[in-house]
Write a structure and sequence with these properties.
There is one protein chain. This protein is α/β, with parallel strands linked by helices. The protein folds into two domains: 7-204, 2-enoyl-CoA Hydratase, Chain A, domain 1, CATH 3.90.226; 208-255, Lyase 2-enoyl-coa Hydratase, Chain  A, domain 2 (Orthogonal Bundle). It has helices at residues 33-47, 88-99, 115-122, 149-157, 159-168, 174-180, 192-205, 208-223, 226-241, 244-254, and strands at residues 7-12, 17-22, 60-65, 70-72, 104-108, 111-113, 125-129, 133-135, 172-173, 185-187. Helix 1 (33-47) runs parallel beside helix 2 (88-99). It starts with 6 loop residues before the first strand and ends in a 10-residue tail after the last helix. The structure holds octanoyl-coenzyme A.
Length: 264
């Protein structure tokens, strides 16, 4: 699992939590084509855990940055080309995260800028340490956030916030990003690892087929109209009623115990 050039992979059998670490700390985990491809390949390998499993083995993924300073400082400015995070090959990791069935948690400790922020925005949750900062500095290079940053922030926090971030290029502290709804949770640095671990563990213990359905439902809500969204939810609800997980959830409720979901 460990032969990828720019990411580190880990998987915990007990919890079903995969960890993918962007590993270019000397450049603050700046995104180049290789890193983008390795993120996709790393997620694919984690998903392979489901192949021989009786149910859903991979319950959640934590995406983080190596080193002390950054989640990711954006596209590798030295290497903009058709193979860099500004080019077509690199678009895939953003969309791959959005399409990925298991929920992905961005664990942000430090700089989260440009394409790094867009990577975090493609994730399902953003958990940040108090010391983290967020921003779209692309405008300082004569660019705009090319992987959907303005789109995502407009949907999360409204167009005025998105335009202020992208037009001024300033860094916003984690607390402000939390107030704006760009970040789900902000934790003090000394509690950060433990808080993210317990968030991920709680998520990993939830009924995995229901979690997958909810991830998709939220996407349908953002990308389509209400009618299509309601249709998706009704169909998904009927499907989930016929799962062993629902039987287990109902039985656990009657027996006054915690459910143990398998993703079947
Ligand atoms: N690319 C390449 N190298 C970088 C990057 C980067 N984005 N960011 C930092 N580094 C390198 C620095 O060059 C430095 O290397 P060295 O030690 O060899 O000089 C090392 O990382 C450490 O950085 P600093 O010494 O600058 O550290 P500071 O703490 O002083 O500053 C900052 C940290 C504020 C993060 C600063 O490094 C900075 O401003 N970096 C650039 C941030 C930036 O502009 N990011 C946006 C890039 S554009 C983008 O992301 C577009 C995405 C579009 C995707 C579209 C897909 C289709």
């Amino acid at each position: 699992m460990d032969d990828l050039e720019t990411v580190l992979l880990d998987y915990d059998d007990d919890s079903g939590i995969g960890t993918l670490t962007m590993n270019r700390p000397d450049s603050l985990n700046a995104l180049n084509g290789q890193l983008s491809r390795d993120i996709v390949e790393g997620l694919r390998r984690l998903e392979e855990r489901n192949e021989d499993a009786d149910g859903v083995a991979l319950r959640a993924v934590v995406l983080e940055g190596a080193g002390e300073k950054a989640f990711c400082a954006g596209a590798d400015i030295g290497g903009f080309s058709s193979d860099s995070a500004g080019g077509s090959s690199a678009r895939s990791h953003y969309q791959f995260i959005v399409d990925f069935p298991a929920p992905v948690i961005a664990k942000i400790d430090g700089y989260c800028l440009g394409g790094g922020l867009e990577t975090a925005l493609a994730c399902d949750f953003r958990l940040a340490s108090e010391e983290s900062t967020f921003g779209f500095p692309e405008v300082n290079l004569g660019l705009l956030p090319g992987a959907g940053g303005v789109q995502y922030v407009t949907k999360l926090a409204g167009p005025a916030v998105a335009k202020e971030l992208a037009m001024f290029g300033d860094h916003v502290p984690a607390e402000r990003a939390g107030e704006l709804g760009i970040v789900n949770r902000v934790y003090p640095g000394d509690e950060f690892d433990d808080e993210v671990a317990s968030f991920a563990e709680k998520l990993a213990g939830q009924a995995p087929l229901a979690v997958q359905g909810i991830k998709k439902s939220a996407r349908v809500a953002v990308e389509t109209g209400l009618e299509e969204g309601l249709r998706y939810d009704r169909e998904q609800f009927s499907t989930l009623l016929n799962t062993e997980d629902f039987e287990e959830g109902a039985a656990a409720f009657s027996e006054k115990r915690d459910p143990e979901f398998e993703g079947r």
